[in-house]
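Dear support,

I submitted the protein below through the web form. The confirmation email said the job was done, but the results page showed an empty box. After a refresh the structure appeared. I'm attaching both so you can tell me whether what I see now is the final result or a partial one.
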Amino acid sequence: MLPWKRVLRPLTALLLTAAVAVVPAATARADSAPSSGWNTYSCKPSTAHPRPVVLVHGTFGNSVDNWLALAPYLVGRGYCVYSLDYGQLPGVPLFNGLGPIDKSAEQLQSFVDKVLAATGAAKADLVGHSQGGMMPRYYLKFLGGAAKVNALVGLAPDNHGTTLSGLTNLLPYFPGAEDLLKASTPGLADQMAGSAFLTKLNAGGDTVAGVHYTVIATKHDEVVTPYSSGFLSGSDVHNVLLQDLCPVDFSEHVAIGLLDRIAYHEVANALDPAHATATTCASVFS
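What the results page shows now:
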């Protein structure tokens, strides 16, 4: 009989392929695709929008493809907008967010410092999709990010992990599968409910003082399961279920980050709560 690792390597590859399949096909390499006005380091925040916005992509995403809709949306509203690549694995081009999440948080730390130095702002706001809405919490909690970040807005973040609708619960039945997963794609293993990373991240409370948290979830999420596991607890937390704002919004995990203007309207409200307006189904036209 074949050794377990030889059997499981194709299985792991299949799981990765299935996950990639839910992400729209990449249009170009991240370093050469158009940015439509963001990642402009000469941009100076305005009085109306005094903080730069840093966009943090999700697992298998990158700094361009994840933000082809939201970045121009925010730029058009007068924000200085920036996005980074993180969690790259050697030999895996374009699809990021697969490396150890604590190391990805260090990449975010360096990027925020770069943005603040370029813009002259004292603090930034962070908007993240999926892992990108959860990973920054490590930066805020353990890497001094709370002193440099005003708000964190998460679109379908997996703040307390996910079972991928129970898929990862199968791993104990395959000896060596979990070790193989951790060795090949630690960023995925870190997001499994009950992982050592998430246990550390959530110990002692979900939030840190001084940061405003917003979570925007969809009940049609097929990746963060249950969707409510993305919600945070804390004194400065605003948890939003997209369908409470627009019952006929059928966006699932990918769409809420890549194209949902109703969710984007709620992002804009979180970034500028003093001028927030009601988010409804009609916000798709705003």
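Response: this is the final, complete result; the empty box was a page-load delay. The CA atoms of residues 53 and 259 lie 18 Å apart.
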